Amino acid sequence: MKILILGVNGFIGHHLTQRILDETDWSVFGMDLSDDRLGKNLQNPRFHFIEGDIAINREWIEYHIKKCDVVLPLVAIATPKLYVEDPISVYNLDFEMNLNVIKQCVKYHKRVAFPSTSEVYGACPDPEFKEDESTLVVGPIRKERWIYSCCKQLLDRVIYAYGTRGHLEFTLFRPFNWIGPRLDSLYAAKEGSSRVVTQFIAELFMKRPITLVDGGSQKRCFTYVDDGIGALLRILANEGDVCKNQIINIGNPENECSVRELADLLKKLFINHPDHRADETYSEIIEVPAQTYYGEGYQDIYARKPNIEKARLLLGWSPKVGLEDSLRMTLYSFLEENEP
Ligand code: UGA
Questions:
Q1: Are the CB atoms for 221 and 313 separated by under 8 Å?
Q2: Distance of CA 55 to the CA centre of its chain
Q3: What is the CA radius of gyration of the chain?
Q4: Neighbouring C-alpha atoms within 13 Å toward the C-beta of 105
Q5: pLDDT per residue over 267-282, tens digit each?
Q6: Shortest CA distance to 184 belongs to which of 319, 34, 78?
Q7: Which of these, 281, 112, 274, lies nearest to 209 by C-alpha position?
Q8: pLDDT tens digits along 118-132
Q9: Which ligand 1 atom lies nearest to the CA of residue 117?
Q10: Residue ranges covered by each domain of the chain
Q11: High-pLDDT (> 90) share of the chain, %
């Protein structure tokens, strides 16, 4: 099988590439703006990398969509700070650029595995979110945070419509707060624009305060990246065509915790790390109003738990890595890669 991955150097892209090359005989054709996370895979004869931009290298993309069996368009802005700071770029990249790719998939009747998101459920009140039943709830327009959710939702709907009318084949997968090595860069965390787990780890590392937005009672279910990629590999293999035109949550409902619990747990793990046991000071944990941290356009999601029955049934998959292990492995890899 030949797989095209746009955004191959991103968090999901580089982990997926590693596992495909290690565990299958498939070939990967990948494009990204840089290659710093791809390491030794760049030398693998089954990996074909080009440095490029989806807004510019359109001919390369069209040629490879035609040539490959499955297309994974993973290019997107996926950090909430940027949704409120630069909603137009989110729209351009996450919606328009990806729509172009989807239209090419239609042109060549390809199979697309598209990264939808847990964010499409928004402020849905269900205790567990179900792919084919839950209502998708977003806030008012002035709360610009929702632009990401809306862009992804509209693409989900467009892909669904093309798929159910036979113009392409799709699987929409919805990651729920995947975490792991190289989730976001230290540089993004220094700017305060990375996702919560890397943001907290970076604050501990830099001895800056950990900020709990609005008190930190909001909850997430954190999923270790190796578990998530395991599900994604089964989607790509698509044995018995079980994933054809399906939407599938990929998350770990067992790993639910509040942002405050997350801060406490990461601080404990950091203090117990062999290189940091003897530090003189550690980050304090403080509370900050959402408006101060993110700005006026932000609105939070208070609880977000996936129902994963569909993934269990269709893929025979369930997540294995618990919360503390997931955080420990994420923290340790961050420290290893960033310590001088
Ligand atoms: C994320 C992002 O939108 C995407 O990465 C993705 O599509 C999706 O959810 C997912 O990974 O499933 P969210 O979980 O809100 O959204 O993103 P984080 O930035 O990781 O924030 C999680 C929670 O921590 C939020 O409630 C936020 O207010 C809080 N937070 C964040 C803090 O309390 N302090 C911080 O320093 C940063």
A1: no
A2: 21
A3: 20
A4: 28
A5: 999 999 999 999 999 9
A6: 78
A7: 281
A8: 999 999 999 999 999
A9: 7
A10: 2-179+224-251+304-320
A11: 96
How far, CA to CA in Å, does 248 sit from each of 110, 174, 232? 19, 6, 10
Token duo for residue 296? 């006026």
Residue with structure tokens 């797989």? 3
Q: How far is the CA of 301 from the centre of ligand 1 (A)?
A: 9
Q: Angle 196-206/259-271 helices, nearest 10 degrees? A: 40
Tell me how far apart the alpha carbons of residues 268 and 272 are, in angstroms, rounded to a whole number.
6
- What mean pLDDT value characterizes the chain? 97
The closest of 31, 70, 72 to 53, measured between CA atoms, is 31
Pick the closest to residue 73 from 158, 199, 176 (CA basis). 158
What three-state secondary structure class fits 87?
A: helix
* CATH C-level class of 2-179+224-251+304-320: alpha beta
300 lines ligand 1 (CB under 6 A): yes
290 CB burial (10 A radius; 0-12, 13-18, 19+) = middle
Instruction: State the average pLDDT over residues 177-203.
Output: 93
In this structure, are residues 128 and 303 in contact, taking their beta carbons and an 8 Å threshold? no
Structure token digits, residue 237: 């293999």
Select from 120, 196, 330 the residue to mutate for testing ligand 1; criterion: most ligand atoms less than 8 Å from CB. Answer: 196
List Cα–Cα distances, 325 to 98, 223, 226, 271, 322, in angstroms. 34, 11, 12, 15, 6
For residues 308, 312, 315 and 320, what is the CA-based torsion angle, rounded to 10 degrees? 90
Residue range 241-249: mean pLDDT, rounded: 97
Q: Which of 259, 267, 287, 291 to mutate to test the pocket of ligand 1 (most atoms within 8 A of CB)?
A: 259
Tokens of 325: 């292990």
CB under 8 Å to 244, separation ≥6 — which residues? Answer: 169, 171, 238
Which strand (E) or helix (H) includes residue 13? helix 11-23
For the full predicted model, state whether its pTM sits above 0.85. Answer: yes
Q: Are the C-beta atoms of 5 and 30 separated by less than 8 Å?
A: yes
